[in-house]
Amino acid sequence: MKPQVKKRLVVIGNGMAGARAVEEILAKGGSIGLDITVFGDEPHGNYNRTRLGRVLSGEDSEEDIFLNALSWFRENNITLHAGVRVERVDKFSHHVFASDGRVVQYDQLIIATGSHPFLPPMEGLYTPSGTIRRGVFTFRTLDDARRMIVFARQEHIRRAVVFGGDSLAQEAARGLRAQGLEVEVLSGIRGAAILGTDPITGVSVSTQADRDCHMVVLTAGSRPNVDLAVVSGLAVERGIVVDDHLRVMDEEDVYAVGECAQHRGEVYGMVAPLWEQAAVLADHITGSDRGSMYLGTRTIPHSNAGSLLAPSGGK
After folding, report:
1. Distance between CA 271 and CA 273 in Å, rounded?
2. For a disulfide at 286, which of 14, 28, 76, 277, Cβ 3.0-4.6 Å?
3. What is the separation, in whole angstroms, between the first and last Cα of the chain?
4. Helix or strand or coil: residue 9?
């Protein structure tokens, strides 16, 4: 008897959505019939993004928040390309093309590219060359938390302003206070500007007095990462459009999950929908339950507890 030929499953994205999907697939027997390859932008294993505030405050170490370290991928015979971005998918020949020149063929593809921080139009946000000003931070990745810690620990950095009205802003503020800074949280961004050249000297907000500060953190919501899908000719509106099986519209073997996916007009940024989507996706990838459907997450807590990203309104 000939040995069973495994199907090639490629997962683009090693964040919480991609990680959960792979875990669900393994739990439903996917290791038997699948050869799994994962691409991740970040050069390490995946981690619990909701606990970044605890890393910033010093309550947790980086190791405490990791979900799957690099060793986990080896133990489960998963090929991980960490720190490698997929730039294009050829949905006709079933290949993905990576930033390091690697070309990998797939039988089934999962896109879990997540989202990126929204940078609002704000005077003084960028340098003349178009880069974000020194002293201005977003708060979404482990690298963001690392950079914020290093910056905040400089002796001359005393005050910070955090823009945002959700739990993410409060987590950033709490973490920076633990680093010894005076922190003010401002919910309104309209008409705001960053003052000074290098270094930052403060912020101005319309109808309010200027605030002195040396550091600015922006938690103004997020937008789905859909550039890869657009370049690859997949169905995109606000997010990558998927059906009740998490299959991308008009595609047979391409799925999307998590913050990059748009299901029945909704794009979610909470943990609960991500977990529910991953379970349904795994049912179809492994064939364990072809009738499984994701019908949307009907109740979203108003508190944003467990939020992966700030609500983005009309994103």
Report:
1. 6
2. 28
3. 53
4. strand
Please tell me whether residue 245 adopts helix, strand or coil conformation: coil
Asked whether 84 and 228 are in contact (CB, 8 A), the reply is no
Cα-atom radius of gyration of the chain, to the nearest Å?
21
φ and ψ at residue 228, rounded to 5 degrees:
-60, -45
What pLDDT digit, counting tens, does each position of 218-267 carry? Answer: 998 889 999 999 999 999 999 999 999 999 999 999 999 999 999 999 99
Which pair of structure tokens corresponds to residue 236? 């995109």
Q: Beta-carbon neighbour count of residue 62 at 10 Å?
A: 13
pLDDT tens figures, 143-201: 999 999 999 999 999 999 999 878 899 999 999 999 999 999 998 777 789 999 889 99
* Residue type, position 47, single letter: Y
pTM summary value: 0.90
Q: What is the DSSP string of 57-99?
A: HTSS-HHHHEEE-HHHHHHTT-EEEET--EEEEETTTTEEEET
Domains of the chain: 7-116+222-286 (3.50.50.60), 119-218 (3.50.50.60)
- Please state the φ and ψ torsions of residue 17, each to the nearest 5 degrees: -70, -50
